[in-house]
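EI: anyone free to look at a 121-residue chain?
SC: sure, send it
EI:
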Amino acid sequence: MTPILNRIVLYVRDMQATCDFYERHFGFVAHRKDGDRIVELRAAGGGAILMLHLAGKAVKTGQVTVKLGFDIEDVEGFKQQCLAQGLEFGSTHQADGYCFANAKDPNGNNIMIGNRAFVAQ
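SC: here you go
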């Protein structure tokens, strides 16, 4: 039996702002169950599920040890699309045949878009 990494828990301060952010910019859909403290965000195209959990007062959000990476073939085109929706990514960086750019979600979590998955390695 081999475990599969399929869920990432994000501790958030504002559940609705976080849902709105990932739905608007990355096409996730929020799934809520009555009485459940966790909201699951699922992408239509599959991939990992983001599980949003309300952060306790002692939890420090926006840790720099984790970055969510999103594969996108056209990094510059996606950056322009996001900018039109109010999300600004930093400079596009070139690295070993692929490119990527960084931003933060409403809770300060690091996110990255990159085309590494689409270039020959």
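EI: The chain has a mean pLDDT of 90.
SC: 👍
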